């Protein structure tokens, strides 16, 4: 039986098309993926992310423990800041990609819905005597407001300025008598805020956001547009681009590895992958002919398989057919032509560098 977020009835009342998503019944779309996508890029959209996981790490040994469990250096993290990080296994594979919030006396981890039980158990198995791990997922709801109007709408809802919160920073503020956490983060590439609060407050906050954003025509956004938005920005999705079989080096995430900080789980294998090179690397590509690449499709050089597609879609912003995938190292060059096996055809695609869409991140 599927679980429901505190906003489940809101989604039904809005006529959302619901799907099962990692144990939760979640909205795939409301008015349509294309419409919702363009709303986030031009105005602002609102997401129910209450299915995500939140874990608190505290105690005197919290920093040392987390540094052993993750690839990035949490000791560089100052109070009020957020860090993108990875949990890796002994062979250097990615258990999850996470956000770590630095609280005055602890660390607040935000983990993927698909992995929250796995992550929690992994942390519990390794926790040291001078640290503790507490699962806060059941007592936390999360709503995101993303897009050029996000700042305007969020300030109107909260009745206070949040413009001073910089990108990848957060602040705890009061709203309707409750302390909530407002973070300038998101999974769309746009400016925006993720708001952590109690499940009891979710419905009221949801309604307040839409009341505040009605003049700016904001819309609720489902998982479908969330996926196309992150794909245009080349943001990896766990289970597609990131798995326990892929290392951070293969995935192009060397920037979130600190080899100088000392030992961490999987360090030896990840360092070896960096020094020796990996067989395959993650690339972005645009199809040169009509077609849509899908997760799992083969990538070839017209003669043999050289990789596989991890994500693919039509970009609602550009109309181009775009995708991400792993290809053998010798083919992973910007401008190189590869072929996507779509049914019985091999469709040519060009490897491109950087994001598929450039945005200004200017607020309105």
Topology:
Layout: H1 8-13, E1 17-21, E2 24-29, H2 33-42, E3 45-48, E4 53-58, H3 62-69, E5 82-88, E6 94-102, E7 106-111, H4 116-126, E8 132-135, E9 141-146, H5 150-158, E10 170-175, E11 178-183, E12 192-197, H6 202-213, E13 219-220, H7 223-232, H8 267-276, E14 280-287, E15 298-300, E16 305-314, E17 321-328, E18 337-342, E19 345-352
Parallel strand pairs: 3-13
Antiparallel strand pairs: 1-2, 3-9, 4-7, 4-8, 5-6, 6-7, 9-12, 10-11, 11-12, 14-17, 14-19, 15-16, 15-18, 16-17, 18-19
Give structural notes.
The model has no long low-confidence stretch (mean pLDDT 97). The chain is globular, with a radius of gyration of 21 Å. The protein has helices spanning 8-13, 33-42, 62-69, 116-126, 150-158, 202-213, 223-232, 267-276, and strands at 17-21, 24-29, 45-48, 53-58, 82-88, 94-102, 106-111, 132-135, 141-146, 170-175, 178-183, 192-197, 219-220, 280-287, 298-300, 305-314, 321-328, 337-342, 345-352. The protein folds into three domains: 8-50 and 140-232, Gyrase A, domain 2 (2-Layer Sandwich), CATH 3.30.1360.120; 53-123, Aminomethyltransferase beta-barrel domains (Alpha-Beta Plaits), CATH 3.30.70; 279-364, Elongation Factor Tu (Ef-tu), domain 3, CATH 2.40.30.110. It is built from eight helices and 19 strands. 21% of the residues lie in helices and 32% in strands. The protein starts with 7 loop residues before the first helix and ends in a 12-residue tail after the last strand. α2 crosses α7.
């Amino acid at each position: 039986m599927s679980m429901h977020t505190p906003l489940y009835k809101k989604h039904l009342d809005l006529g959302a098309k619901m799907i099962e998503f990692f144990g939760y019944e979640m909205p795939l779309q409301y008015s349509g993926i294309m419409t919702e996508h363009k709303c986030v890029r031009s105005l602002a959209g609102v997401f129910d992310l209450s299915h995500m996981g939140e874990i608190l790490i505290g105690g005197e040994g919290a920093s040392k423990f987390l540094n052993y469990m993750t690839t990035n250096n949490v000791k560089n993290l100052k109070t009020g800041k957020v860090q993108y990080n990875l949990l890796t296994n002994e062979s250097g594979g990615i258990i999850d990609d996470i956000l770590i919030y630095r609280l005055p006396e602890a660390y607040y981890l935000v983990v993927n819905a698909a992995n929250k039980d796995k992550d929690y158990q992994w942390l519990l198995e390794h926790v040291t005597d001078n640290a503790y791990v507490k699962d806060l997922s059941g007592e936390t709801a999360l709503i995101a407001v993303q897009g050029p109007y996000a700042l305007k709408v969020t300030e109107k809802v909260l009745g206070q300025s949040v413009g001073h919160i910089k990108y990848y920073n957060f602040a705890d503020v009061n709203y309707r008598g409750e302390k909530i956490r407002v973070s300038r983060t998101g999974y769309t590439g746009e400016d925006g805020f993720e708001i952590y609060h109690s499940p009891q407050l979710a419905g009221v906050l949801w309604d307040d956001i839409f009341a505040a954003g009605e003049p700016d025509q904001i819309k609720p956004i489902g998982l479908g547009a969330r996926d196309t938005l992150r794909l245009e920005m080349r943001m990896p999705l766990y289970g597609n681009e990131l798995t326990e079989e892929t290392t951070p080096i293969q995935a192009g995430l060397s920037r979130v590895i600190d080899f100088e900080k000392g030992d961490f789980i999987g360090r030896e294998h990840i360092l070896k992958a960096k020094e020796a090179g990996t067989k395959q690397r993650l690339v972005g590509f645009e199809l040169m002919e009509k077609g849509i690449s899908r997760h799992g499709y083969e990538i070839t050089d017209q003669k043999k398989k050289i990789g596989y597609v991890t994500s693919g879609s039509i970009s609602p912003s550009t109309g181009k057919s775009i995708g991400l995938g792993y290809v053998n190292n010798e083919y992973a060059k910007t401008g190189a032509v590869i072929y996507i096996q779509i049914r019985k055809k091999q469709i040519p695609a060009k490897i491109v560098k950087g994001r598929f869409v450039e945005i200004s991140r200017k607020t309105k």
